[in-house]
Design goal:
This protein has about 350 residues and is α+β, with helices and mostly antiparallel strands. It folds into two domains: about 170 residues, Cytidine Deaminase, domain 2, CATH 3.40.140.10; about 170 residues, Cytidine Deaminase, domain 2, CATH 3.40.140. The chain contains 13 helices and 14 strands. α10 links the parallel β12 and β13. The site of zinc ion has 6 residues, from α7.
């Protein structure tokens, strides 16, 4: 259970004006119609936290957004206490035309909290992110990139994710932590248990290690610099490595290798093998997991197995290695892809573009 702090003034501030104006109980209820679901009550037991959540939902409902491409509004808010004052902070998604790019509601909101109270206080004070929707609340999680950012900027092990539905005023609360799967939780496997023929596995491992020797790592720590190899169902092997730059527009290696395969209309990827510095477990960012999940959703559209994600852990002296094996579906729980939003469009796209099988 989250350790909620006491905010005696929050409730006083919320209630006193209503009493002063002589509002009836029904009118107060109409002003603040939110109701936690039974499940949400398991996570939110402190009236003070409930009050902050409802205040945030009221603010999120009015947050400005600009989803010019998707038309999908992500309206977010939180309430943090800093220097004895409660601050309501909002965020929202904005998209820009040309290339389908966006600032997401989660990153927008946390950025605004940091702007207001600084990064250390943000990490300490943000207990929840509240999202307002005028539809029913869904069950999906944040995208991979937002997970990376929230894991850096919040106490994510305690973080609550709230959805308030304007349709029925129900408030749903879940934990962020189940959307995180550490690489060391990926099952360790023998080469035989990867599901790949020995010679093919060896080629992929050698290719990933070679790729890691390249790339661009001017700002990236050695343990974070990755080389990857991808095997497609057509039997082709592609490689890529991480690349950073002065604008910090990192080129993610899994995304890069998938882009290369796609440039050959080779869309169905059987396996991705990832290598990092000896003595370390490769850390696959959640953004890269998102790219892999999207690719695997193409596989599933055409009846192929999910794309395998295989990690190489070399010993410090490079003399021995261990392997870990999972899928992007396992590595990114609660993920979404274009195939879930626009299944017919993905079918049409693959019909037109994919190499004949
Ligand atoms: Zn996101």
């Amino acid at each position: 259970m989250i350790q909620a702090r006491r905010h005696p003034f929050l409730f006083a501030a919320a209630v006193v004006p209503a009493l002063a104006l002589g509002c009836s109980a029904a009118e107060r209820e109409a002003e603040r119609p939110w109701a936690l679901t039974e499940e949400a009550r398991q996570e939110v037991t402190e009236p003070e936290l409930e009050g902050r959540i409802f205040t945030a939902l009221d603010a999120a409902a009015k947050a400005g957004t600009d989803p010019s491409i998707s038309k999908y509004h992500v309206r977010a808010a939180t309430v943090v206490s800093h220097d004895g004052v409660d601050h309501t902070v909002v965020g929202g998604n904005t998209e820009w035309a040309g290339y389908p790019e966006a600032i997401h509601g989660e990153t927008s909101l946390l950025n605004h909290v940091i702007n207001l109270i600084g990064p250390e206080a943000a990490r300490e004070e943000v207990d929840f992110l509240a999202f307002y929707t005028d539809r029913a609340c869904g069950t999906g999680g944040s995208c991979g990139d937002c997970r990376d950012y929230l894991m850096t900027t919040t106490r994510w092990r305690d973080l609550l994710i709230v959805c308030g539905s304007g349709a029925d005023h129900s408030v749903h609360v879940r934990r962020f932590a189940p959307w995180v799967v550490p690489e060391t939780d990926f099952p360790e496997v023998t080469p035989e248990d990867t599901g790949l023929p020995a010679a093919q596995l060896e080629e992929l491992v050698a290719t990933a290690l070679e790729a890691r020797a390249g790339g661009v790592a001017l700002f990236t720590a050695a343990a974070e610099h990755l080389g990857v190899a991808a095997l497609t169902t057509q039997g082709n092997v592609y490689r890529a490595a991480g690349a950073d730059d002065a604008a910090f527009h990192y080129r993610y290696p899994v995304g890069a290798v998938l882009q290369q395969a796609a440039a050959h209309s080779d869309y169905f990827v059987a396996a991705i093998v990832v290598a990092t510095a000896p003595g370390h477990t490769p850390r696959v960012s959640y953004r890269d997991r998102q790219y892999g999940y999207e690719a695997s959703s193409f596989n599933q559209k055409r009846g192929h197995e999910p794309t395998l994600l295989i990690l190489i852990e070399e010993s410090t002296d490079g003399a021995s290695r261990r392997l870990r094996r999972t899928t992007f579906e396992e590595a990114l729980p609660g993920a979404f892809s274009t195939a879930s939003f626009m299944p017919e469009a993905v079918d049409r796209f693959l019909d037109q573009r994919a190499q004949p099988e």
